[in-house]
Amino acid sequence: MAKRFRLNIQGIVQGVGFRPFVYQLAHRCRLNGYVANTPKGVAVEVEGDQESLYHFLKALPESAPPLANIIQIDTEELPAAEYGSFEIRSSEVGEERATLISPDTETCADCLAELFDPKDRRYRYPFINCTNCGPRYTIIDDIPYDRPKTSMASFVMCDDCSREYHDPLDRRFHAQPNGCWACGPRVWLTDVSGNELRTDDPIVAAAEHLKTGAIVAVKGLGGFHLAVDATQNEAVKRLRRRKGREEKPLAIMCSSLEQVERYALLGEEERRLLTCPQRPIVIVPKRERNEIAPEVAPRNGYFGVMLPYTPLHHLLLSHPFSALVMTSGNISEEPIAIDNEEALQRLGPIADYFLLHDRDILLRSDDSILRVVSDRPRQIRRSRGYVPVPVFLRKPVAPVLALGGELKGTICLTKGSRAFVGQHLGDLENLETLEFLEQTVAHLRRILEVQPRLLVHDLHPDYLTTQVAKTQDELPILAVQHHHAHVVSVMAEHGLEGRALGLALDGTGYGDDHSIWGGEILAADQISYERVGYLDNVPMPGGAAAIKEPWRMAVSYLTAAFGAEIFERNQVLFQRWDPERIRVLLQMIERKVNSPSTSSCGRLFDGIAALVGLRDRIAYEGQAAIELEQCLEPTNERYEYECREADGRLLMSPTVIFTQIYKDAVSGVPAGVISGKFHQTLVAMFTEACVRLGQMYGLGRVICSGGVFQNVFLLENLERQLQAAGLEVYTPQAIPANDACISLGQAVVGAASLEG
Ligand code: ZN
Ligand code: ZN
Ligand code: FE
């Protein structure tokens, strides 16, 4: 007796070889019926005997193609239809677009084998791909994901490619970016003026130029990279100078895992991350002796490393480089270049050569960055390879668009029970980045077909994103407090509901009392929050200038601890700082001129880094705090702290800690020891605060978020101590701890507000 089942499969199931996989599986199980793409995913009907059906239904989720991500399978039994065969039907059309688009994915092993096989017709073809690999999100303009809606539209397939494309049993069946030497995109090398240089092989020529220390702008998958030989210090220095990037570490690309292990120490999880299909940059500890140029990551114990992820990278790295610097093709914090003309113009002053191609990048996407902490991968910059995979919410919510914060901007759009966090936009401080935000919003709205009902922005009145929200009249708007968004983003990632303690430690977030927050404990749910604990406020003399110049914060904490006389009494310790400038700061503090008050934990790190002589000025965000963490010497000692109750809140005193650190510094205790004791103090103080607040408010869960949790010591030890104290702890993993998570938190708060 034949039975018939209809399966509706949702998830990332289009453009990933799902239909041919189902086709082949059905043939193996000797079932009849069909498979088709639908607006919601994939529909399958299978008919046959019970045992074959059983095998089919079991194997389907277990052996799905590598890029597929099945979220849900709905199965219903129907009366037999007596199908005579199994076939792949053309797409079923409908109203709603709910299908998920795959992110861009590294070249698969099958394609790599062909790439380096002299007998293959795609030998050394820099755009080889198949249904299991290649570009996706960055070349798609609209859905359904079909070639005419991608930047491959202008390339007409040759007969050979077309045959593969239409053969359900071929591994390039419906591989939209399919192409070859005869019909697909091509690569060429130019000088800085865009004149094509005559070469036998442009990639070989580019590699030879790199060998001589030249800087080559390489068009990649989600944008341009600036490449330089990572072992040539002078060349790396020149790149830094031209790019206007003083000290922030530069990412490197190595040909293989074995190569990476020559410069860096890898654990199991790092190896897995480096080789996963998303191919992110992974932050890994340097080996003490390595041949990478010091200028790649000066005063930093770590490298950001990635493996090749496009055929072009594989070809470039097949030359004997130890490693190539592959840093974003931009000037400082602007968006990375994606168009050939734009790149020649913007990167002309930086690069010596351009390795260009003619497959357009429709949406830029930077390399993602992760690091392993407590054996779990943690996103630092979530972009290429991960976007547009959504965060799955516990239940469907109203469609909401959230614009995020300012630094490390992202946007978030909800649809049903999914929250789509867009790719890394950069710091929303200039018009270029703002334009990129607008493109990303338009693109996501188009491919998801969502009409949001609410626009959410940060409470900060001066953020560009706030201005955007306030100057449009399409949607009603809602302002969400920065740290509330931080906490809710982590709740969303872990599927939590209800009230919990939120420990939000970061640099800057606008508070509802108009001061600058950043060392906060909230009692929060998805609708509202109460500020139940925080670091006592100190002035930030010069406002934003105090972020760039940590010594200003040292002056502020010292003044709070000892009064202004301290600078008369101990001139030896402060001789690095200009007495005239100290006087100006003291006046600003005293007269409360341009000195917003702050509870920021990030500023406390800054002030201490400056006091112990690590860094008075920073060249990139968070640098002082990073260097304070990296010099840390393990110790069990810590400073005394004060955590006092006032009106049902806990106030923690940075001044009490700073006083003791000053005494240590005066008596010559090394910076590393001070750092160790300071870190231990924060762990003890925040643990005690959370335990006490947990009891006061009857809450047993602690949610950690904020840029300070990129500090590995703090994250590991706070999590452990809070757990040891009997609290349930949730930390950021799939979505960064830094401000890239703000849009997700905003969207969830916004959606909850529409329900409430
Ligand atoms: Zn492939
Ligand atoms: Zn072809
Ligand atoms: Fe923040």
What are the SSEs and their pairings?
Elements: E1 3-12, H1 18-28, E2 32-38, E3 41-48, H2 50-62, E4 69-78, E5 86-88, H3 109-115, H4 159-166, E6 187-191, H5 202-211, E7 216-219, E8 224-229, H6 233-243, E9 251-253, H7 257-261, H8 268-275, E10 281-285, E11 302-306, H9 311-317, E12 324-328, H10 340-347, E13 353-357, E14 369-373, E15 376-381, E16 391-397, E17 400-402, E18 412-421, H11 431-448, E19 454-458, H12 464-471, E20 477-480, H13 482-493, E21 500-510, E22 516-524, E23 529-535, E24 538-539, H14 545-548, H15 550-562, H16 566-569, H17 579-591, E25 597-598, H18 601-611, H19 623-630, E26 643-646, E27 649-652, H20 654-666, H21 671-697, E28 701-705, H22 712-724, E29 728-730, H23 742-755
Parallel strand pairs: 2-5, 7-13, 9-11, 10-14, 17-19, 19-20, 21-28, 23-27, 28-29
Antiparallel strand pairs: 1-3, 1-4, 2-3, 6-13, 7-8, 8-12, 9-12, 10-11, 14-15, 16-18, 17-18, 21-22, 22-23, 24-25, 26-27
Describe the structure.
This protein is 33% helix and 22% strand. With 756 residues, the chain is of the alpha/beta class. The protein has five domains: 3-101, Alpha-Beta Plaits; 103-185, DHBP synthase (Alpha-Beta Complex), CATH 3.90.870; 187-357, DHBP synthase (Alpha-Beta Complex); 382-501 and 526-531 and 739-755, 2-Layer Sandwich (Nucleotidyltransferase, domain 5), CATH 3.30.420.360; 516-524 and 532-695, Nucleotidyltransferase, domain 5 (2-Layer Sandwich). The strands form five sheets. The protein has a ten-stranded mixed sheet, with helices on both faces. Strands 26-27-23-22-21-28-29 form a seven-stranded mixed sheet, sandwiched between helices. Helix 12 (464-471) links the parallel strand 19 (454-458) and strand 20. Helix 13 crosses helix 23 (742-755) and helix 15 packs across helix 20 (654-666). It is globular. It starts with a strand and ends with a helix. 53% of the residues are buried. The model has no long low-confidence stretch (mean pLDDT 94). Bound molecules: zinc ion (ZN) (2 copies) and fe (iii) ion (FE).
